[in-house]
Amino acid sequence: MSTSNRQLFQSLAMVSSMGISVVLAIGIGVWFGLTLDKWFSSKPWFFYIFLFIGIAAGFKNVYVIAGREIRKSDDTTS
User: Fold this and answer.
1) Helix (H) or strand (E) holding 77
2) Angstrom distance (rounded) from CA 21 to CA 19
3) Whole-number pLDDT of residue 74
4) pLDDT at position 78, please?
5) Distance set, CA 64 to CA 2, 32, 59 (Å)
6) pTM for this model (two decimals)
7) How many other CB atoms are found less than 10 A from the CB of residue 9?
8) In which band, very low, low, confident or very high, does the pLDDT at 55 lie, cut at 50, 70 and 90?
9) Each residue of 32-63: b (16+ CB within 10 Å) or e?
10) Would the pLDDT of 77 be above 80?
11) Phi, psi of 58 (to 5 degrees)
12) The Cα angle at residue 25 between residues 63 and 48, in degrees rounded to 5
């Protein structure tokens, strides 16, 4: 496999992992919030709280993945 194809697949894998990470973090936050709302009959407070926590966690995951890839690309060019 040529290096350009390899780099293309690595970039595609990185973007895919970012997307999956964001979706899972938000989904888990929403599920947890809805479950707590059901237990405590407090609709929609826990839903909104954990939705925002999930969004923040998703973007933090993107930041971590992007930072790791930037460090990796800096190491290979040095």
Assistant:
1) helix 45-77
2) 5
3) 80
4) 63
5) 28, 23, 9
6) 0.85
7) 11
8) very high
9) bbbeebeeeeeeeebbebbbebbeebbeebbe
10) no
11) -65, -45
12) 110
The per-residue pLDDT for 41 is 94
Unique residue bearing structure tokens 């780099």: 7
What does the block give as tokens for 49? Answer: 């709280």
Query: How do residues 8-53 score in pLDDT, each as one tens digit?
Result: 898 899 999 999 999 999 999 999 999 999 999 999 999 999 999 9
Record the tokens describing residue 63, joined without a space.
């930041």
Residue 37 tokens, joined: 């709302």
According to the 3-state scheme, what is the secondary structure of 12-42?
A: HHHHHHHHHHHHHHHHHHHHHHHHHHHHHCC
d(CA 30, CA 57): 12
Q: Which residue has the tokens 């690309």?
A: 73
List Cα–Cα distances, 2 to 26, 28, 50, 59, in angstroms: 37, 39, 44, 32
